[in-house]
Write a structure and sequence with these properties.
The protein is an alpha/beta fold and about 450 residues long. The protein has helices spanning about 5-15, 25-30, 50-65, 75-85, 95-100, 115-125, 145-160, 160-170, 175-180, 185-190, 200-210, 215, 220-245, 250-280, 290-295, 300-305, 310-315, 355-360, 375-380, 400-405, 410-415, 435-440, and strands at about 15, 35-40, 70-75, 135-140, 285, 320-335, 345-350, 365-370, 385-390, 405-410, 415-425. It has two domains: about 5-145 and about 255-445, 3-Layer(aba) Sandwich (EreA/ChaN-like  fold), CATH 3.40.1660; about 145-255.
Length: about 450
C-alpha cells in the first residue's frame, strides 16, 4: 500500500460517520467534557449544513451541558436584540423581528431560516425554565457597529444620566453624521489626513462611562448591571471600531489582529459577566468562521503575523477551549461577488488536489467527523502543511487557488473537524431573483 492510500485508510479508520442523529456527536461531547469555551467554525459564511449542524451541537451543549450563551461573529447591538428576545424580555415579538437589526452586508449570515429556527428553539428552551433560573443568551462579539453602538451608548445615558448623555454627544460629534454612518470613509479620510482621528474622544467616553459604573449600577440590581454591561460593551466597540477602520487602509495584518483581539476580549468580558451573575464559571459556545476559531499558529495566517480568536483563547484558557472546524468538497454556497454586492447562490467547485477537502472526499464517506485531539496516529499522518479552502462572504471561483486556499496543519488548528462532502447554499430570509437564478447552474458540468 502506497503512503497516500495508507493515509486514506487511516482517516477512514478514525472517521465517525454522521447519519443525522443527535447521538452522532456523543464522541464530540465527550471530548468537550467540562470545557468552558467551544468554538464552532464554518468553512464558508453561507452553507446550510454548517449552520444546522452547528445549531444541533449547540442545542445539546445548552440543554445537557448547561452552556450559558452563544457568542456569534455578529455586531454587539444587533445581536443584543436577539438576546432580549430569547430571554423573554420586552421588544421583539418573534425571531424574524428579533433579527431585523442585521441590516448591513452580509445580512444573510444571520437573517436566514436556520438561525430563525435556532432562535425560536432558544426562546422556547428559556421559557420552560423556572423564573428564578438564569437563561441562555445570544450575543455578538464583532466590532463593525460604530454608528449603532454610538446610538446605544447615548440612549443608555439619556435614561440614567442626561448630563453625561450630552457629554457623550460632544465626544462622538468628532464623527460627523456622514462618517458615523460610513465608517470605512472615516477610516480612509483619517488615515490620509483628510479627517481628524477620533481616538482620543472615544477613549474618553469609555473611561467616563466606566468611572460612573458604581453609580449607574447601585440601584435595580440585576437590571441595572445588565444594562450597564450592554452600554459598556457598546462604548468599547466604538473604541475598537474607530481604531479598526483607521488602520484597515494601513495594514491588513494589523486590522485583522485588532478585530480578532476585540472579539476575544469581548468573549472574555462576557464570560466574566455571566460568571458573576451565575455564581459559577459560565460556559459559552462561539459561532464564527474557521479562520477565526482555528488556531492561527497552525496556519499560513500565523506565519504572516496574524492571530485569531482560536489562538488567543487557547493562550488564555488552555484545555478549557475546544475548537471545531468544518469542511466541504463541493456544492453550492450563498455569497457575493463583491463587498456590498448582491446575494448569490454560487457553485462551489470540487476541491483542489492536495487539499484536506480532496483528501476527505477520497474516503468515500459522505459525512463524517474526526476527533483530532489525542489521536496520535491521525496527528502523525496529518501533521504536514496541506491546502485548506476558506470561503467568506465573497466567493471568486475563477481565482480560487489565490483567493480561497492557504496552508494549514489541521491537527494543530482544530480539536475536531466535521466534513460534509456535498453542501447546499444557506437560504436567506430575503431571497432576490439573482439568488434563485444561481441555482440553475447546478446542472452545469462541475469543472467549469
Amino acid at each position: 500500500m502506497n503512503p497516500h492510500s495508507h493515509l486514506i485508510e487511516q482517516i477512514r479508520n478514525s472517521a465517525i460517520s454522521l447519519s443525522g442523529h443527535a447521538t452522532d456527536y456523543s464522541p464530540l461531547l465527550a471530548l468537550i467534557g467540562d470545557a468552558r469555551f467551544v468554538l464552532i467554525g464554518e468553512a464558508t459564511h453561507g452553507t446550510e449544513e454548517f449552520y444546522r449542524t452547528r445549531a444541533q451541537i449547540t442545542r445539546q451543549l445548552i440543554f445537557h451541558g448547561g452552556f450559558a450563551a452563544v457568542a456569534v461573529e455578529g455586531d454587539w447591538p444587533d445581536s443584543y436584540r436577539v438576546n432580549r428576545y430569547v430571554r423573554g424580555e420586552a421588544a421583539p415579538q418573534n425571531a424574524h423581528s428579533a433579527l431585523i437589526e442585521f441590516e448591513r452586508f452580509p445580512a444573510w449570515m444571520w437573517r436566514n431560516e436556520a438561525v430563525v429556527e435556532f432562535t425560536e428553539w432558544l426562546r422556547q428552551y428559556n421559557d420552560k425554565k423556572p423564573s428564578s433560573a438564569r437563561k441562555a443568551g445570544f450575543y455578538g462579539i464583532d466590532l463593525y457597529s460604530l454608528n449603532a453602538s454610538i446610538k446605544a451608548v447615548i440612549e443608555y445615558l439619556e435614561k440614567t444620566d442626561p448630563p453625561a448623555a450630552e457629554r457623550a454627544r460632544h465626544y462622538y460629534s468628532c464623527f460627523d453624521h456622514h462618517y458615523a454612518e460610513n465608517p470605512q470613509q472615516y477610516g480612509y479620510a483619517s488615515s490620509c489626513g483628510l479627517a481628524k482621528p477620533c481616538e482620543e474622544e472615544v477613549v474618553r467616553q469609555l473611561v467616563a462611562l466606566r468611572h460612573r459604573a458604581f453609580d449607574y449600577m447601585k440601584h435595580d440590581g440585576f437590571v441595572a448591571e445588565e444594562e450597564f454591561f450592554y452600554a459598556e460593551q457598546n462604548a468599547k466597540a466604538v473604541v475598537d471600531a474607530e481604531e479598526y477602520y483607521r488602520t484597515m487602509f494601513q495594514s491588513r495584518v494589523l486590522s485583522w489582529n485588532l478585530r480578532d483581539r476585540h472579539m476575544a476580549e469581548t468573549l472574555d468580558a462576557l464570560a466574566n459577566h455571566l460568571s458573576s451573575q451565575r455564581g459559577e464559571p459560565a460556559k459559552i459556545v462561539v459561532w464564527a468562521h474557521n479562520s477565526h476559531v482555528g488556531d492561527a499558529r497552525a496556519t499560513e495566517m500565523g506565519d504572516n503575523g496574524e492571530w485569531n480568536i482560536g489562538q488567543l483563547m487557547r493562550e488564555r484558557h488552555g484545555s478549557e477551549v475546544v475548537s471545531i472546524g468544518f469542511s466541504t468538497y463541493r456544492g453550492t454556497v450563498t455569497a457575493a461577488s463583491d463587498w456590498d454586492g448582491e446575494t448569490e447562490c454560487k457553485i462551489v467547485r470540487p476541491a483542489m488536489p492536495e487539499s484536506y477537502e480532496a483528501l476527505f472526499h477520497e474516503t468515500g464517506i459522505p459525512n463524517f467527523m474526526l476527533i483530532l485531539r489525542g489521536n496520535d496516529t491521525l496527528t502523525r499522518h496529518l501533521h504536514l502543511n496541506r491546502l485548506q479552502r476558506a470561503i467568506g462572504v465573497i466567493y471568486h471561483p475563477q481565482t480560487e487557488r489565490l483567493s480561497h486556499y492557504s496552508f494549514a496543519r489541521l491537527p494543530e488548528q482544530f480539536d475536531a473537524i466535521i466534513h460534509i462532502d456535498k453542501t447546499t447554499a444557506l437560504k436567506p430570509l430575503e431571497v432576490n431573483p439573482l439568488w434563485h437564478k444561481g441555482e440553475v447552474f447546478e446542472t452545469y458540468p462541475a469543472g467549469l
